[in-house]
Design brief:
The structure holds 2 protein chains of 2 kinds. By secondary structure, chain A is mainly β. Chain A is built from no helices and 11 strands. The radius of gyration of chain A is 13 Å and the shape is globular. Chain B has strands at about 5, 10-15, 20-25, 30-40, 45-50, 55-60, 60-65, 70-75, 85-95, 100, 105-110. In chain B, the strands form 2 sheets. In chain B, strands 2, 4, 5, 9, 10 and 11 form a 6-stranded mixed β-sheet that branches. In chain B, strands 1-3-8-7-6 form a 5-stranded antiparallel β-sheet, with no helix packed on it. Chain B has no helices and 11 strands. Classes of the chains: A mainly beta, B mainly beta. The interface of A and B includes residues 4, 45 and 105 of A.
């Protein structure tokens, strides 16, 4: 979905390095999410934000931090990357004002490899 | 914690046939479900949703069935096309804030 963009699309880094994954959306949604996807596992929630001043930990937040710089931007940081953080990372948004549908709209993903 | 699982990891169907993809969920309190399609190299894409006060919901060529008695969700795709080849997974919601996703079924359409 072109309304949700992620940068970079691919990243290779070394153990111990700090990296940031960025997400931007033009959908005007208040809610934003970061997930990781691993082979054989479902998407797992890392962090979510319901507005600029609201940040919440998800299922697997250890080793990650986030920043909601604006309504349209939500970045994910790995302070000290480790190999088991190798995964496909997705950003998503949802519209809090839509009471009939709580679906999330996903970006194209960032493939991260930690050596 | 709760888990959402799929019965079959892979499914192959002939073009033009109907496809049925299944999903089992374990939390009887789940009240909202979504099916997503994920094509190679892309993010998940919403297909159809259903709330727990419904048993069936239809979209364009897709139907979702919900059986709360046995905690089972299915996605039916009519007249499957090559463009339907993708990974399909379900998601459930019971907290109002967080979705829990299944592992996915890979659908391959044979021309």
């Amino acid at each position: 979905d072109a309304d949700v963009t992620q940068t970079p699309r691919n990243r290779i880094t070394k153990t111990g390095k700090r990296i940031m994954l960025e997400c931007s959306q033009t959908k005007g949604h208040d809610r934003m999410y970061w997930y990781r996807q691993d082979p054989g596992l479902g998407l797992r929630l890392i962090y979510y934000s319901f507005d600029v001043k609201d940040i919440n930990k998800g299922e697997i937040s250890d080793g990650y931090s986030v920043s909601r710089q604006a309504q349209a931007k939500f970045s994910l940081s790995l302070e000290s990357a480790i190999p088991n953080q190798t995964a496909l990372y997705f950003c998503a948004t949802s519209d809090a004002a839509d009471q009939t549908r709580e679906t999330q709209y996903f970006g194209p993903g960032t493939r991260l490899l930690v050596l | 914690g709760e888990s959402v699982g799929l019965h079959l990891p892979t499914l192959s169907v002939q073009e033009g046939d109907n496809s049925i993809i299944n999903c089992a969920y374990s939390n009887s309190a789940s009240d909202y479900f979504i099916w997503y399609k994920q094509e190679s190299g892309k993010g998940p894409q919403f297909i159809i949703d259903i709330r727990s006060n419904m048993d069936k919901r239809q979209g364009q060529r897709v139907t979702v069935l919900l059986n709360k008695t046995v905690k089972h969700l299915s996605l039916q795709i009519a007249a499957t096309q090559p463009g339907d080849s993708a990974v399909y997974f379900c998601a459930e919601n019971w907290t109002g804030n967080q979705f829990y996703f299944g592992t996915g079924t890979s659908l391959t359409v044979i021309p």
